[in-house]
User: Fold these one by one.
Assistant:
Number 1:
Amino acid sequence: MLAPGSGSEQRTRLALRWRQVSWITCWIALCAVEALPTCPFSCKCDTRSLEVDCSGLGLTVVPPDVPAATRTLLLLNNKLSALPSWAFANLSSLQRLDLSNNFLDQLPRSIFEDLTNLTELQLRNNSIRTLDRDLLQHSPLLRHLDLSINGLAQLPPGLFDGLPALRSLSLRSNRLQNLDRLTFEPLASLQLLQVGDNPWECDCNLRDFKHWMEWFSYRANAGGRLDQLACTLPKELRGKDMRMVPMEMFNYCSQLEGENSSAGLDSPGPPCTKASPEPAKPKPGAEPEPESSTACPQKQRYRPVSVRRAIGTVIIAGVVCGIVCIMMVVAAAYGCIYASLMAKYHRELKKRQPLMGDPEGEHEDQKQISSVA
Ligand SMILES: *[C@@H]1O[C@H](CO)[C@@H](O)[C@H](O)[C@H]1NC(C)=O
Ligand SMILES: *[C@@H]1O[C@H](CO)[C@@H](O)[C@H](O)[C@H]1NC(C)=O
Ligand SMILES: *[C@@H]1O[C@H](CO)[C@@H](O)[C@H](O)[C@H]1NC(C)=O
Ligand SMILES: *[C@@H]1O[C@H](CO)[C@@H](O)[C@H](O)[C@H]1NC(C)=O
């Protein structure tokens, strides 16, 4: 009976070992699951490239359980509109963030604060109208920034101050009318700038940016690439690239500044063009222009003010002259009439004197005295 007993003992030992092995495998499996980053619901996660793809899911909020180690987070083609400032908190490993084709309108100033390793930020095709100047101050490694197809009407000064590594920037299809050169000066590494499809106003406000663009295009190290900056206003420059507009056409700007410091200016007019012929001066003498204008009417914006002033002066002078003339004519006419009447009276008096007595003569003397007085 020994053999069967030892057999059963062996069987229980085997079962024990099996149980141990299964426990171990189970534990290993659990550990493996825990080691893998959890993937947010219905997103696709690539554990090798650390990419989390949550695009096209109709999301209205950023999934709260995005693994902290994520390097790429794709949230394009969703319905994100207002994001809380902690939407991307703790994602300091994130390098690429794509928020294109959403309905974002305002971004809290600290929303990207933790994204210190961000190199690419896509905000294309949203409804962003304003940006906080500190929005990108914590992502010094940013190399690509796409803000195209939004509603930006201006960029806050200092927006790009913390972005010395930025290589490409797109501002296409916004509502920008002018740009400040100082905003772009910190972008020392910029190579590609897209500014097309904006309602550019090619006037004095854009002159300094034109300078910057010229410097950017011909920069010594690597010539920067820039798409079209086609003017929308003024009418004379519509469709023309700002870089092709000769700098001389903006000479009036400095005169404008001089004029501005002395006297207030009213609404700014369009700059001059070669297309528009120089209007003939209505009153050359009344124009207080120091130098003769060149081929381009450089002071078109300056001229209407002085013309208006000159016309005013002429009208006032004319009115004063007219009044004085009328008074003189009236006085002369009165004098003539009086003189002729007096002469006639004297003649009649001389004729009658022998007939009339002295009293009449006395009376005549009194009359003369009163008239002199
Ligand atoms: C970020 O990390 C800190 C500390 O690790 C933690 O207290 C905080 O809850 C985290 N925030 C989010 C939104 O995960
Ligand atoms: C961010 O980048 C720096 C330098 O490249 C690196 O040392 C650091 O570990 C990165 N941070 C994270 C959280 O990956
Ligand atoms: C912009 O996004 C909207 C909705 O997200 C989409 O319908 C539209 O086609 C997008 N436009 C472009 C030019 O990508
Ligand atoms: C001209 O004056 C206006 C206000 O009177 C001011 O806003 C503007 O910046 C001035 N422009 C220049 C070029 O000095």
Number 2:
Amino acid sequence: MSEELEKLFEYYRQGDNQYQIAGGEKGCYKLANDFYDVMEKLPESRKILFMHPGDLTESREKLARFLAGYMNGPELYEQKYGPLALGPAHSHLAIGSAEKDAWLLCMEKALEMQDWSEEFKAFMLMRLQTPASRIQNRP
Ligand code: HEM
């Protein structure tokens, strides 16, 4: 990574910069809604779509609120639903590398739909690899 990009990523990590750059609560909701819109359409994500409840309203809400805290903004998920450990929240699901890749593909496509800089989109996609890998619970 270039020194310039490293500096930019360091800036994103400070305080709630990520949350602000993403457009705050509204930005988190847009990303989560675009993410699930993509998941509903993409053939590659059919399997993970069917792991979800038939009505995605609450999944959209939960992901949006989770993302706010994840971007160092307000803990909107916790305020409504209480504390969340991502691993245990997914442990009832069979998530191998194919399911992880499908999730990340939906996120990549959703990120492309945001009115954000390419650098910030790349930063978010990079950051999300870590929780996605931790959630993977089988090969
Ligand atoms: C690795 C691939 C992943 C798959 C296949 C996956 C799949 C799912 C599914 C099927 C649900 C609904 C569970 C249910 O209602 O029973 C869910 C919930 C959720 N997922 Fe994921 N997920 C993945 C990764 C992630 C990542 C990386 C994040 C956050 C960065 C995330 C955040 C959430 C949240 C916040 C919920 C709601 C949890 C709750 O309130 O119970 N997921 N996920």
